[in-house]
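Let us practice reading a record.
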Amino acid sequence: MTPQEPPQPLISALGLDVGHKRIGVAGCDRTGLIATGITTVERTSFARDVEQIQNIVNERQVQILVIGLPYSMDGSLGFQARQVQKFAKRLAKALQLPMEYVDERLTSFQAEQMLIAENRSPSRHKGLIDRKAASLILQQWLDTRRANFHRSVLALEY
C-alpha cells in the first residue's frame, strides 16, 4: 500500500496581461488546474483600472496576482517590462495582494495563433487576444506551481 499524496492547497489566482491600452484578465478554478480568460479591462485611469480589477478580486476571492512580464528576446527587461513592473507594484499595493511575475514572451503571439486556428481575425479580436494571453500566463504559473509541489512531495518521501 502506498501512502496517499497530500492534496495541493486550494488557490485562487488572477493572471494579468498588462498592456498600454488593455489588461487581459484570467482566473483559475480553486484546484489550480485550469486557467481561463475572464475579461479584458479597457484602461482609462489607474483608479478605474484598480476598481474594475478589485471587483473581480472580491468576486473570485483572489489570493495572488500573476503578472506577465514582457522580457526582451535576449532576456533583458526593456522599457515595456519596466512599465509593467511599475503598474504591477502599484496595483498589488492598492489591492493589498501578493504578486508574482511570469515570463510572458510570445504569449500574445501564441494567443494570436490560437485565434487564427479558430478562423478568427486577430485584428478584430484584440480583447480576446489579451484574455487568451492572460490565461497562458496564468496556466504557465499554475503548471510550474504544481510541478514544484509534486517535486517537494517526492523529496519528502525519501
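A brief commentary: Strands lie at 13-18, 22-28, 35-42, 64-69, 99-103.
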